[in-house]
Amino acid sequence: MDEGLLEKTANELVAHGKGILAADESNGTMSNRLEAVGVEPSSETRRAYRSNIFATSDYESAISGVILFDETIRQTMDDGTSIPDYLASRGIHPGIKVDTGAKELAHHSGEKITEGLDGLRERCMEYFAMGARFAKWRAVIRIGDGIPSDSNISTNAHALARYAAICQEQGLVPIIEPEVLMDGDHDSQTCYDVTARILDATFAECNVQGVHIPGTLLKPNMVLPGKDCPDQGSREQAAQMTVDCLTTHVPHNLPGIVFLSGGQSDEDATAHLNLMNGMDVEHPWQLSYSYGRALLAHALQTWASGSNEESQNAFAHRAEMNSLARSGDWSVDLEA
Prior knowledge:
By secondary structure, the chain is an alpha/beta fold. About 45% of the residues lie in helices and about 15% in strands. It is globular.
């Protein structure tokens, strides 16, 4: 394990004013999104859409890395340059999603375990040779009647730690993503408690597996009430509860936290991040972003309408807004 390389990459991914673009939707998910905006899905339309986004001018000032899917890392830009090589030429780290999806957890209805450990070492070796310098693995934690169970928490925490150790062995910075979903009618305190449980369990397993925390990033949910909760609270409450939870349950030698948007609106995802970075306190880690839909939803719609340039402008705008939120300098007035 090259600890120096891992730490260097991790810190570059959360450099001042920068965050990560999550463009790692599976073929099925990306195809569904294309169909939703009236585009016939295929390998070529997925490539054309993503290559147009990656060709946006000057977005490297706000984007430090791009998470790719297996299909995408093997594709090329319009001029034939491989996508990983093109991103690297712009000073952007190529990343790769390495899990193989969440499946039903045996004997636990409604709960899932993320799979993909079999053959992971060999896949990481291949991806590193292709130019990837970081990876992502997502665990899905659902809140409901009697769930998440201890089994759901422990099995996903163990898998996240094993994934992280294997990635680091092969030179890839692991992004650990234990996502507590917004589905349901639970309140903010319940989200806080469940988030704390999965974070504690995950970092305990990382310690057992020898994961080098200074060469690791965390991609958590923010502490938010369920979508169906009658009390949605304020943005300020969400920001404060999120910081409180992370401060207590995340190692302080972790370089950075790159939040997922998790179904929030574009503006909410930016506003929450801005509030956290605008607090009158020095956080022990960088607070950044690893957004997908919150960076690309409008860009996809405009691309589907036939305008490559407007699509790039939409992406560049959202990237700039979140870059400003990294230092607490975003305001709603800038959205106009």
